[in-house]
Give the backbone structure.
Amino acid sequence: MQKWSGAAFKAGKSIGVVPTMGALHEAHGSLIKRARQENDLVITTVFVNPAQFGPGEDYEAYPRDFNSDREFCEKEKVDAIFHPSTDEMYANPQTVVKIGKLASTMCGAFRPGHFDGVATVVAKLFNITKSTRAYFGLKDYQQLRIIKQLAVDLNFDLEIIGCPIIRESDGLAFSSRNRYLSEDERRRAVYLNKALKHGWQLYRKGEKKAGKIAIEIRDIISENTGGKIDYAGVYDADSLEEISGDIKENIVIAAAVHIGKTRLIDNVSSYEEALSQKK
Ligand code: AMP
C-alpha cells in the first residue's frame, strides 16, 4: 500500500481515503462517492481494529464480509482497498496515540481507551495511504472531532472532511451494527433519532436550558426503546463538554443507548445543520 500511494503521490495525484471497519453500507458509499468526486484516486480501508474494542465489546462478533465489501468498492469505483491483517498492522507495537480531554466525555466516558485505539490506527492509516483528504461521517461526531484534533496536533498534512449522517427512511442512522437488531429492536431503535430530533426542535424553538432538553430526550429514549442509556444530552460542539446551564451556540445533541445487546449512537449538531444549509 505504501509503495502504491508513494508512486501516486510522486506522480502528483490527489488521494482520498475512506477508513472503515467493513460491512459496507449506503453511508460508507456516500463517503466513497464524495472522495471519488474530489480526488484523482480513492482508497477504502477495511480493518476491524482490535485496539478500539474494550473487553466485553463485540470485536469477535463484528460483521466481516470481505467479498461483499470488495464488490461494493468495485461498484463505487474505488482504486484500492487496503485490507491488512491484524498482525501486519500490529507487530509488537510500543507506541500509541493518547487522546486528552476530548475523549473524557460522551462515548469516551463509557469506552475507556476506545479513542486512543481509533487515533492510533487512523494515524497509521494516514501514514500508510499518504492521503490528501480523509473522509469521516458525522454519525461518529466525537470521533470526527478527535481526528481533526489529531491531524492538528501531530501535523498530518491532509484535510479531514466531515460528511452528513445517512439515515434509513424512518430516521435510523445506517450502522454496521444495525444488523444485530431483531425486528422488535429495530422498531424501537428509531426512537433514538426521534428523541434527538425532538431535542433539536426544542432548541430551535428557543429552549436555552440544556438540562430541560436532556431530560426530555432521555424520557423519550427510555420510554420507547426500553434500552439502557449510556449518555444523552447537550454538548459543546467543539470542547464536547456537557452543557448544564444555558446554551449559547454550536452544540451537538447526542446519545448512546443499548437496545438489547446492540449499542447505538446518534446525534444532531450545529455542524451538520451548517452543512445542510450550505447545499
Ligand atoms: P465504521 O465502518 O462504522 O467504522 O464507519 C466508517 C466511517 O463511516 C466512519 O467515518 C463513520 O462515521 C462513517 N459512517 C458510518 N455510519 C454512518 C452514517 N450512518 N452516516 C454517515 N457516516 C457514517
About this structure: The first strand starts at residue 15 and ends at 20. The chain has ten helices and eight strands. The two ends are 35 Å apart (CA to CA). Strands lie at 15-20, 41-46, 80-82, 133-137, 159-163, 228-236, 251-259, 262-269.
